[in-house]
Amino acid sequence: MDDQTTNIVVATRTALDQASALAVQYGFSLLGAIILLIGGWLLAGIISRSAYRVISRIRGIDETLASFFQNVLHYSLLILVFITVLGQFGVQTASIIAALGAAGLAIGLALQGTLQNIAAGIMLLILRPFRVGEYIETTNVKGYIKEIGLFATEMRTADGLYLMAPNSTLWNTPIINHSREPDRRQQLSVAMDEKVDIDLARKTILDILKADQRIKTTPSPKVFLDELAVDQAVLNIEYWAITSSWSDVRHDVVSKLKARLAEPDITIKSPTEATGPAD
């Protein structure tokens, strides 16, 4: 009985000693993991915010893109900290990294269309083929840019409708930016009676164009005979105007041409306008 009691006491002491050793060992590991987790969390925030400030100062980098890079860097650092913390407890991190890689591949395949929009959004924000407030036209959509996001671009059509276009549809098609260049050319055609004095009509049109201060003098406006049919002569008009007032100039010029060319000395037959973008 004494031997059995002694064995129980010895076994209990041994178990307590081992438990104490394990508690001390894992206690220090737990303390180190907590310190590493808190420090890593704070350090990840500091590094990501510093990266945002540096990236946002780069010319041509949009705020949305800078925020995206900040978030990617922040969460990447947090994942690295989490894996390091698990390593403190003897967990095989190689298998975790492999599992994360496989999960990332599966998610990438599942969200292939979404990732295409993100990639397209990043390229649009870097290359900046259009900016907020500009009017663009593609084979699929056209309108004024309201906001450029990572997934889609918000637009407003010429008649005031809201339009959201996935970035991949904008990136994979030619883009015509009607607002980017400071000056823009306008073309008009005027069909006149064959008996009209072409030189007088040409001079009259040029006087109207030169009187408008919004029309550029360089290159100078041009009026030339473009077509001569049996019963009519077609005058082609070309001029350059400031892009911001291009539509207003076009409307005013058409109104003045119609009023002046309708006078008895000059007879207009059928004024026409070259096709242009919506106002």
Automatic annotation (TrEMBL):
Question: Mind telling me which Pfam families this protein's record contains?
Answer: MS_channel_1st, MS_channel_1st_1, MS_channel_2nd, MS_channel_3rd
Q: Which GO terms describe its molecular function?
A: mechanosensitive monoatomic ion channel activity
Task: Report membrane topology.
Answer: Multi-pass membrane protein
> Start and end of every Mechanosensitive ion channel MscS C-terminal domain?
189-267
What keyword terms does UniProt attach to this protein? Cell inner membrane, Cell membrane, Ion channel, Ion transport, Membrane, Transmembrane, Transmembrane helix, Transport
Extract the SUPFAM superfamilies matched here.
Mechanosensitive channel protein MscS (YggB), C-terminal domain, Mechanosensitive channel protein MscS (YggB), transmembrane region, Sm-like ribonucleoproteins
The UniProt entry's sequence similarity note says: Belongs to the MscS (TC 1.A.23) family.
| The name this protein goes by in its record | Small-conductance mechanosensitive channel
Please name the source species.
Rhizobium multihospitium
Provide the organism lineage as a comma list.
Answer: Bacteria, Pseudomonadati, Pseudomonadota, Alphaproteobacteria, Hyphomicrobiales
